[in-house]
Amino acid sequence: MAVKKRSDLGVIYEFKTWRDITPMNTSAGTMLHNKTGSWRTIKPVFENKTPACQNSCPAGNDIEGWIKLLQQGEYEKAYWHLKREEPFPSVLGRVCFRFCEEACNRIPFDDCVGISALERFIGDRDASLVPHPDLPEYNGKSMAVVGSGPAGMSAAYFGRLLGFRVAIFEKLQVMGGVLRVGIPEYRLPRDIIAAEFEGLAAMGIELRPGTAIGKDISLEELTGRYDYIFLATGAHGSRKLDIDGEDESRRIMSGLEMLRKVSLGEDVACGKKVAVIGGGNTAIDVARTALRMGSAVTVIYRRSEDEMPANPEEVLEAREEGARFRFLAAPERIELNDDGSIKKLICCEMELAPADESGRIRPAKKDGALFDVETDSILTSIGEVPILDYLKGIAGNEKDVVAVDGTLMVNTGGNGKIFAGGDIIDIQRTVVNAVASGKKAAIAIDCDYRSADFGDVLKEISIGNGSALSFSRYMNWNPETPQNIHMVVDSEKIVYDYFEKAPRVMQKTGDAETRKNSFNAYRETFTEDEAQQEASRCMHCGRCIECDNCLIFCPDMSVLPEGDGQFGYEFDYDYCKGCGICFTECPRHAITMVSEEEGDK
Amino acid sequence: MRQLLKGNYAVAEGARLCRVKVVSVYPITPQTTIVERLSEICASGELDAKFIKVESEHSAMATLVGASSAGVRAFTATSSNGLLLMHEVLHWVAGARLPIVMTNVNRAVSGGWNIWADQTDSISQRDTGWLQIYCESSQEVLDSVIMAYRLAEKILMPVMLTYDAFFLSHTTEVVDVPDIELVDEFLPPYQPEFKLDIDNPRMFGGLMSPDYFYEHRYTVHKASQEALEYYPEVCREFRDIFGRDYDITEEYRTDGAEVIVVTTGTITSVVRITVDKMREAGRKVGLMKLRMFRPVPVDRWRSILGNVAKVVVIDRNLSPGLGGVFADEVQAALYSLENRPSIYPVVAGLGGRDVTPADIEGIINHALSSDDPAGVPLFWGLKE
Amino acid sequence: MERTTQRMIEIPRDVMTGEELWQPGVLSCQGCGGSLAMKLALKGLGRRTVIVLPACCMSIIVGAYPYSTSQVPLLHVPFETAAAGASGVRAALDIRGEEDVVVMAWAGDGGTFDIGLQALSGAAERNEDILYVCYDNEAYMNTGIQRSGATPAGAWTTTTPDKAVKEESKKDIERIMLSHDIPYMATASVAYPADIYAKFKKIRSIKGTKFIHILSPCPPGWQIDSADSIKVSRMATQSNVFPIYEVENGKYTINVYPEKEVTVKEYMKTQGRFRYITDDAVNAAQEWTDRKWEKLKGMLK
User: Fold this and answer.
1) In this complex, do B52 and C52 lie within 8 Å of one another by their Cβ atoms?
2) C1 within a domain of the structure (yes/no)
3) Could you tell me which chain A residue has the CA closest to the CA of B156?
4) Strand order in the sheet with A142-146
5) Quick one: B38 and B170 in the same domain?
6) In the listed set B187, B212, B242, which residue is the last one of a domain according to the structure?
7) β-strand pairing of B50-52 with A417-420
8) What tens digit of pLDDT does each residue of C236-278 get?
9) Residue B28: which domain range?
10) What is the pLDDT of residue B376?
11) pLDDT score at A128
């Protein structure tokens, strides 16, 4: 910051008589006395906003923030920065649904930034970093987390960061929930999960594997021992096909069960020819796991490939590994042999009806268009459902999901403060949504503990126009959150002329033949060079990165290069005429014009 | 060293002796031999100056605006239409207080092409702010160039020296060309207080609001008037070194004169011999040679002309609808005198028409014999 | 063909944050391209520069007596005399032994294309060691938007009023200057500041007459929002209406191949001054632009 304001340097020339006319009537000095700022009706302000990627991330991952640190080679800082909103980069960097990449403003330009791969790079590089730098003293309250999947992990992590003493109860002997028993090892190696739990343990979080609620310990007992309970037992049941023959054969199995057994090392007989029913990511996981067990796999999905919710990259890889796909087909009935083995699967051809009011295309059976699929096993993967037996007796849980209020609290009728999240509540069932619900629950629990109004808090910490919450904002870890957290910078606000097209860097992937013969992870984490190259594609939407455009383009020399803290610049309002060029030419919309009179935007 | 020189060459010699640093000239008859001569001496190194061969008189003067603002001694020469083309820049130069010296060969202004002697070109520039000195001989032209720089650089005003086309520009006379060392003694190098200078950056000629412009114009006026104080001093010093005497205004045989003839340029020489002849004949006639026309030496004119009965002003220029401009200005200068003389304005010799001793005698006789000057110009020699 | 984005040549940070030879308090309108062009030019040229300024917007922008925003010496000269005045300053500086000081004549399009063309041609023919910059806002903006030789066909001005828009194309000043065989001729645009910086830095080492033609947006004259001033200028280049190139000793280089291409119509639609243009005139302008662009590309061979 300049020691002296430039306008203080303006000198008014004393002029009283004709004798004061300078020899040869020359002019000198400056025009600094002429404060052209008085011409202004609107003025620019530096204001960081929420990038489209962060806006779309259910967990509110401050992607731009850590990519910036990554670019600076500050990997450790990037790691901890990342973990402020999304605690498990090595995991999410592998299995995330990647809403962020779909929202990336680079898509209309060339291709999205490989955010997930970068997150994985950051997570893998510094996964063993301990201790956590933001760890507070305990606040005297305790919290029991039931279920060690991503929602539970997240609630435990954020709960601990808020000062709660936390224990995670897990029914199985292994920690990780769906990460451990629902996602195949080739996508998420077990040591990665283990490392995350090491990290949680190092934060002082108690891990209680092999402790099933309702069996090893009752919910009542838990509510008696802990101030707060967070339920996150996941959706480990499978939706049934509900067709003839389904219940009569052990050659028909839920895909989830098959994945769990494989994960736990139990015997699974898959059969030579497997039909996988479904089109989600789990279906693909099931198909590829079956491929690795030596089966020939056909995936049967009732809509077309375009509507398939599974990640296209995974679909492609499954294809490469030999999976066959039969779209627009739905199982009609199963004919069994007497020994219970499958004779044939009879499917019906489907057609897509025009989109209904909700915009979703509904498949409909074509009359009489039946055909046979030869198979000796059927793996179903048409949807997961929570198993909520242990909750019997708690009000409001008649349906498939646990009813919660806006703070994720379960109405227990006064029998303890129980919150719920992850796949057992009515949210989109992805790992990142689960993490988001854990974060939200932790904040809600903290609000309850501090008797703060969660609704008021939400207004302050909601990111962009979505439902994600900023933990940094909640913790007052400023200035790392943007001032204008509610304004989303989408592609219309980006000045693409300032960017260069660059091909996306992909993670190296093993060839199909090798990978289908093993459960080993086949995708390689970025090298530092690859990470830097890919990170350089980030446009830093909504965030000032001191590109100097405002400094260069200001026709009134009113951008000072010495900033005050968060920004590298400062406007000199003594001279800024409010032309708005800096606003228009900011490549990433980190400047906002506000009315001079009202302070309005 | 005494040399036989045409008027134009005397000008070039003057520029050489003053060690001008930038010369920017565009050729026009009858000034062309100045351009040629300056080209030669710049090319030969006799004069260490940058010669900019511009594409017009306008640019000639404009380049000198640049050169003089950058603090070096600058020179140009022109004539007639060329001078008129410079007109805009002439105002600029005076307003900018640039001590540029220019010689103008007085030539008639076209339309109706005419290349011969006539002062309407320089008269048209009288309000530009340039000091104007009218010369009679080649020697006077040379000496005046040297004195002009002394004057200009002291008061920071441009000086225009004028002399008649062909009668002087192309007539060979004996001229004493002074030693350059003596000129150096008389005329030190130009070192302005302000110039375009990287180490002291200033802006020259900026926009002036009504708050300043009036006072600025007044300073230009004051500077011009300073010439009346300073030029006699310059002339005295010049005389002390070079032995030749000049003044703002020259008087010749005015003692007890009934009629004084006011002239400029080469007509003066004709008047001088006519006055001699008429004095010998006992006629009480005298001559006032008007050298400095801007600033107007009102006091000198009054002291010379205030006690005479009749004044004849011969103008080799014409302001159509008025008459001769010198007559007009002399009348104006004398008007407030209680016993002001009768003024006989005469227009003669336009466009190089010869004005002979007989013409002068006729003009003087006309004045002597008339008691009613009528105030309207007499167009002497007009074919009626 | 090689594609170039504008940040290919960066302006060094220490230059942008360094000495301000063009200080704030300037009297330019909001979004003025001229003031910006001058600021960037001086970043490239540095302190050892003298500016010669004929009548143009910049005569006002720089500040009125007794003040000046310029921290390099500056000489105001009459409208049509930029090149002549600069020639004189050059001569004097050479006499003073300051050959390294760049003498920059800085004139508008009126002072260059029209009234100052004679002096400019004279100076270029003499190959004066000066830099002549025309910051071109495509009309007499200082006097209130009158048509100049640089006004493009189809544009409204106060002397091509209402629907009587200018019918004639913009004068090709670049070819006029190139026909003088000067050592350096370049175009530039405030939309590409790094290019301006690089060119002004470069000319320091070139002897003889240098001519740089800068497209300089004028929000009031072009009838655009001041905030869009750079964007519209950029579109001028993206549409090839104003290509960015340089010719050094006869060798042509196109400095900016914009990533994004826009049509002349799209460019014109951004500006109120073209609101009366007919479809035929738009098509003619597109053809004119395409022809010139092809011709320019042809010069690369």
Assistant:
1) no
2) no
3) A24
4) A206-208, A165-169, A142-146, A228-231, A417-420
5) yes
6) B242
7) unpaired
8) 999 999 999 999 999 999 999 988 889 999 999 999 999 999 9
9) 2-242
10) 87
11) 63
Which residues are paired to C52 by β-bridges?
C75, C105
Are residues C136 and C34 in contact, defined by beta-carbon separation less than 8 angstroms? no
- Residue in B with minimal Cα distance to A13: B212
Pairing of the two strands C131-136 and C74-76: unpaired
β-sheet bridge partners, residue C108? C135
Residue B306 lies in a domain: yes
Strand partners, C51: C74, C104
Residue type, B56: S
Give Cα B59 distance to the centre of its chain. Answer: 22
- In chain B, which among 261-320 make CB contacts under 8 A with chain C? none
Number of Cβ within 10 Å of residue C231's Cβ equals: 19
- pLDDT at A601 (0 to 100): 47
Cβ C223 vs Cβ C137: under 8 Å: no
> Do B154 and B218 reside in the same domain of the chain?
yes
How far is residue A104's CA from residue C105's CA, in Å, rounded to a whole number? Answer: 48
Report the residue count for chain A. 601
pLDDT tens digits for range B207-218:
999 999 999 999
Using CB atoms, list chains with 3+ pairs below 8 Å to chain B.
A, C
CATH of the domain at B188: 3.40.50.970
- Assign residue B299 the CATH number of its domain: 3.40.50.920
Cis peptide before A479 (omega within 30 of 0): yes
What domains does chain A contain, in order, with CATH numbers? 132-236+386-452 (3.50.50.60), 239-383 (3.50.50.60)
Q: CA A336: distance to chain centroid? A: 43
DSSP A381-417: -S-EE---GGGTTSTT--SSS----TTSB---TTS-E
Give Cβ neighbours of residue C185 (< 8 Å, ≥ 6 apart): C174, C177, C178, C210, C211, C212, C213, C246, C247
Q: Is residue C151 part of a domain?
A: yes
Count of CB atoms within 10 A of residue B247's CB? 16
* Separation between Cα atoms, residue A588 and residue A584, nearest integer Å: 10
| Under 8 Å between Cβ of B103 and B11 | yes
Determine the distance in angstroms separating the CA of C14 from the nearest CA of chain A, rounded to an integer: 10
- Residue B329's SS3 state is helix
**Interatomic CA distance for residues A130 and A141, integer angstroms:** 24
Count of structural domains, chain C? 1
Please report the DSSP string for A459-485 in residue order. HHHB-TTSS-B-HHHHTT-TTSS-TEE
**Rounded Cα distance, A346 and A330, in Å:** 9
3-state secondary structure of A187: coil
What's the CATH code of the domain at C177? 3.40.50.970
Residue B326 confidence (pLDDT) above 80: yes
Token pair belonging to C22? 């063009």
Handedness of CA B114, B116, B117, B121 (dihedral sign): positive
As a whole number of Å, the end-to-end CA separation of chain C is: 13
* Residue of chain A with shortest Cα separation from B208: A25
- Domain stop point among B242, B272, B301: B242
Touching subunits of A (3+ CB pairs, under 8 Å) are: B, C
Q: Give Cα separations from A68 to A74, A428, B17, B176, B314 (angstroms).
A: 9, 30, 72, 84, 89
Element (H, E) at B66: helix B57-69
User: Token digits for A534?
Assistant: 């890919």
- φ, ψ for residue B51 (rounded to 5)? -105, 110
Same domain, B191 and B275: no
Is the pLDDT score of A314 beyond 80? yes
Residue A174 CB-half CA count within 13 A:
17
Chain center to CA of C201: 16
Quote the Cα angle for A551-C104-B93, to 5°: 125
Q: Does residue B384 lie within any of the structural domains?
A: no
pLDDT over 70 (residue B268): yes
Contact yes or no for A110/A104 (Cβ under 8 A)? no
Answer whether residue C1 shows pLDDT above 50: no
Q: Which of B47, B59, B199, B204 to mutate to test the interface with C (most CBs of C within 10 A)?
A: B59
